[in-house]
Amino acid sequence: MSATTLIHNAKIVGESGKPYLGWLLFSDDVIIDLGKGHPKSMDTASEIIDFEGDLLMPGMIDTHVHFREPGLTRKATIESESAAAVAGGVTSFFDMPNTIPPTTSLEAWAEKMEIAAKTSHANYAFYIGATNSNLDSEIMRADFTQIPGVKLFLGSSTGNLLVDSQASLERLFQEVKVPIAVHAEDNARINDNARTAREIFGDEPVPVEFHPWIRDARACMDSTLYALALAEKFDARLHICHLSTGIETKLLRERKPTRVTTETGTHYLHFADTDYEALGTRIKCNPAIKASTDRSALKKAVKDGLIDIIASDHAPHLLSEKEGDALTAPSGMPGIQFQLPLLLDLYSPELVAKLTASNPASIFNVDRRGVLKKGNYADFVRIRKQEHLISDADVISLCGWTPLAGVTIGHSVISTWVNGQLAFDNGKVTDNISSKALKFNN
């Protein structure tokens, strides 16, 4: 008979909404049962864990990460970044295709799956990226019970991942039936703004404060409008990634088709353009962090239910590589390890669980994850309400730094279970590799 573990005296964030004091029983990798109050008997459990009133939440499903492997392993690896993930209460992740080589072929996708099967601390899945020419040869041959969706860059990216052919875009939106996750920024406008900035500053560096001027709200808005038009024309499953502007939230209040879903990043809810002076290129990312009014509009959109998912867009670089100006410094920053505590400082546990676990699971049809319920996989996290001052010394990611250094958070991740195994406990990532490839009911 399989060993069972009983968790009791926990504030459970379950299907019903607000946390309740209760218990949860799991065996091997599956939740056997859970309920309110005290369990009727503790005698049959092989192990008993008293949560002492701490929160028990479903493990986060981070639908937007860049773990850099293969090809960029000086910055990060699937092993190192999945370790940071479980330290942050993330039990599953979807990795983006802009690696070297880019994940635009089934062969490249299979290579990532093989690496993750051996090294990932968290459950894993990998998008396939769209190009102007891989719809027939790769995307239409893909098994979308193993792939969460197609990533589409409408703004500049690495390699051949920018899709700018109208014919290719129309076929993609017409023929692909799974979520098309779009990076929506207008490439032509960004290039025009960059040329203007270079003319203004000549041979001098372009201050990083100009990054949100170069990648401005209009670039986001124009591209989002274009993506919406394609989605509406072909009744496609559009997922708009990393919303960063108030004007986009205003548009979506007026025009958000049923099959369109939205995502923002934790960094857009925390930082604003006033932070460039102190943090410089450490917070340079694409789309750019913009004005405090944009941040306020995004926070309100989250509360109003306009935004469906919050993800990290975790994209580490070595700190030495972040040197440069608005045009030359690489975009991206680490974020996966501290996003859950940050979000719990902003929103209720039930809303955080919805935005980071149950909504990702339902939108992407993830099999048996995202909700604490009988029969689902035992992916969950223990959270304690206690203050912690973040420092670079805390960082588990290979890059070794965080733009949040010096920020005090009011919640801490104590333990994380992945498929019923402790993956992180009291400040340490364990040796347990219990992760699985995610399955999708497509």
Oligomer: single chain
The overall average pLDDT, rounded, is 95
Determine the structural class based on helices, strands and strand pairing: alpha/beta
Q: Beta-strand percentage?
A: 15-25%
Summarize the biggest pleated sheet. 9 strands, mixed
Individual helix count: 12
Q: Any low-confidence stretches, pLDDT <50, length ≥5?
A: none
The overall strand count is 20
Instruction: Assign an overall shape.
Output: globular
Indicate the radius of gyration in whole angstroms: 21 Å
What is the helix fraction of residues, given as a range? Answer: 25-40%
Q: What is the rounded distance between the termini?
A: 34 Å
Question: What would you say this structure looks like, in words?
Answer:
Strands 1, 2, 3, 4, 5, 15, 18, 19 and 20 form a 9-stranded mixed sheet that branches. A 6-stranded parallel sheet has the order 9-10-11-12-13-14. It has a 3-stranded parallel sheet with strand order 6-7-8. The two termini are 34 Å apart. The chain contains 12 helices and 20 strands. α3 packs across α6 and α6 runs parallel beside α7.
Secondary structure elements and pairings:
Blueprint: E1 4-12, E2 20-27, E3 30-36, E4 47-50, E5 55-58, E6 60-65, H1 78-87, E7 90-95, H2 106-119, E8 123-126, E9 128-129, E10 150-153, H3 166-175, E11 180-183, H4 187-201, H5 211-214, H6 217-234, E12 238-243, H7 246-254, E13 260-265, H8 266-270, H9 276-279, H10 292-303, E14 309-311, H11 339-346, H12 349-363, E15 380-384, E16 388-389, E17 408-409, E18 412-418, E19 421-425, E20 428-429
Parallel strand pairs: 1-4, 1-5, 6-7, 7-8, 9-10, 10-11, 11-12, 12-13, 13-14
Antiparallel strand pairs: 1-2, 2-3, 5-15, 15-18, 16-17, 18-19, 19-20
Helix pairs in contact: 3-6, 6-7
